[in-house]
Amino acid sequence: MLSKLKQYIKEHIHLRLRYMPISLKLAFIYSIMLSMILIITLSATLVGIHYVLYHEAEISITLSANFVEKKANEKGLEEIIKDVEKSSLIPGVVMRITDKDNNVIYDSMPMYISNDKVQNNLQLQTQSPSFGDYIRNALLPENLKFINFRHFWIFYTQRTIEKDDNVYTLHFLRTITAEKVFLEELSETILYVGLVGVLISIICGFLLSRKLLKPLSDITKKVKDIEIQDLNKRIEVPPTHDEIEELANTFNLMLERLQKGFEQQRQFVSDASHELRTPATVICGYSDMLARWGKDDPQTADECITAIHSEAINMQRLIEKLLFLARADQKRQVLHKESISMKPLIADIAKDTQLIAPQHSVTCSLNEDGYIFADPLCMRQMLRIFLDNSIKYTPDGGKIEISSHNDGNKMIVKISDNGIGIGKEEQKKIFERFYRVDAARTKNGVGGTGLGLSIAEWIAQAHDIEIKLDSELEKGTTITLFIPLDFG
C-alpha cells in the first residue's frame, strides 16, 4: 500500500509540480509553509489550553483526595464527614464514602450521578475502551480515570481506608463537561480559522508570486520580441536591486555580445566575399582570354596560365588565413606547445628574411638565448607576419632590424624598420580583420589581405604575449613582443 502511494505521488503529483509554472509553484510552496505554521501554532495553542484546563481539574481532584485520605488516617469517620461538610474539598469536587458492600454511607452531592452508574461505566470502559478514552486515560496518572457518559464527562479517583475493623472506599469525582465542551468548540473554531488562513495564504501566495515574477514576465515578453534583425534593442532594467535586475543586466550583456558577434560575422562574410571576388574575377577573365586566344597564341597562353596560377595561390593563402581565424574563433585551433630556444629561431627568421628581401638591409643586432613554452610553428608564423609587413611598407634600400633580449623574466623581441610608418588613428585599427592601409602607400602599390596582423594578435594572446606598437609617419615602426620565459 505504501509503495503504491509513493508511486502515485511520484507519477502524478511530482510530475505536475515539475511542469507547473513558477508562480504557481511559489504560491503552492508559500501556502504549504504558511499552512504548516498555522497548523503547528493552532495545534500548540489547543494542546496548551487543553493541558491547562484538564490539569487544573486533575490537580483539584488529586489534592482533595490526598487531603481527605490523610485526615481519614488521623480521625474517625464521623469527623471526616464533618470536615468535608466544612468545605475541606476544593469546589467542584464531589466525595462519596461506601462500605465493603458498596453501600453509600456519605454523599457530598446526593443529586450527582449515582455510584452504581459510575462503577458500571468504569467497568465497561475498562473492558472495551474507545480509542479516545484509551488515549485520555493513558495520559492521566495511574489512580485517576476519565469516565465518558456520552454528554457528561468526569475525572474519578478513589482511596481505601480501614476504620474500626471496617474497610471504606472514598470516591472522588470532578465534572469536566464544561472544559470538554469548551475545548470542542475551540477546536471547531480553530479548524475554521485554520481553513480560512490556508485559503488566504493560497490567495496571497498566488498574488505575491505573480507580483514578484511580473518583471520576469516582462523580460520574457521583450526577449521574445527581439529578432536577429534588431539585436540593438535592450531590455528595460527594473530598479529592484535584486536577482531580477541582475538577470536583466545579464540579458543586455548577452545581447551586446550577440550583436557584436553577428556584426563581426556579417562584416567577416562581406569582407571575405569581397576578397575572394577579386582573384575569382581575375581567374575568370584570364580563363576567357585563354579560351579565346590561347590556342593560337602561346605567349598569351603562358601569360594567362601564370596569372591564373598566381591568383589561385593568393586565393589559397586567403582561404588558409580565413580557416585559421575561423578555427580560432571556435576555439578549435590546436596549439602544440613545447619548450623552444629563441636564439636559433630568431637566427633562422633573420636568415630567411634576408633571402626573401635582398633589396632591404636586414640585420640581427642582438640575439640572446632563452627558452619559451610555445607552439614553434605559430611563433615562426607570428614573427614572419610582422617582418612581412616591415618588408611591404619599407621602400627598397630601407633597414629592417630584429633583436631579442632576455631580461630574466621575459624574452623581449623587437622588429624595427625605417619605412613609411603608421598614423595614430590607423594604429588603433591595424589588428582588425581585413583592415589595410592605402595600397598606394606600399612600395609596389599592392596591399595585403588585412588578415595577417589579426592572426598574429591571436597567436600572441594564445601565448600570453604582450604586443607594443611604436610608429611614426615617414620615420618607421617598431613592434616589441614581451614573451614569458619557460622556467619549467
Q: How does this structure look, described?
A:
With 488 residues, the chain is α+β, with helices and mostly antiparallel strands. The chain is 58% helix and 17% strand. The chain contains 12 helices and 12 strands. Strands 2-1-5-4-3 form a 5-stranded antiparallel beta sheet. A hairpin with a 3-residue loop joins β9 (399-406) and β10. α7 (243-294) packs antiparallel against α8 (298-329) and α10 (376-392) runs antiparallel to α12 (452-462). It is rod-shaped, with a radius of gyration of 51 Å. The protein starts with a helix and ends with a strand. This is histidine kinase. Residues 210-263 form the HAMP domain.
Report the uncertain regions: none
Judged by helices, strands and strand pairing, the structural class is: alpha+beta
Radius of gyration: 51 Å
Main β-sheet: number of strands, strand sense, barrel status?
5 strands, antiparallel
* Binned strand content: 15-25%
Number of helices: 12
Strand order of the largest sheet: 2-1-5-4-3
Q: Average pLDDT, to the nearest integer?
A: 83
* CATH class descriptor of the largest domain: Alpha Beta
Order of helices and strands: HHHEEHHEEEHHHEHEEHEEHHEE
**What's the overall geometry?**
rod-shaped
Entry keywords:
about 500 residues; alpha+beta; Beta-Lactamase; Helix Hairpins; Heat Shock Protein 90; 3 domains; 5-stranded antiparallel beta sheet; 5-stranded mixed beta sheet; about 60% helix
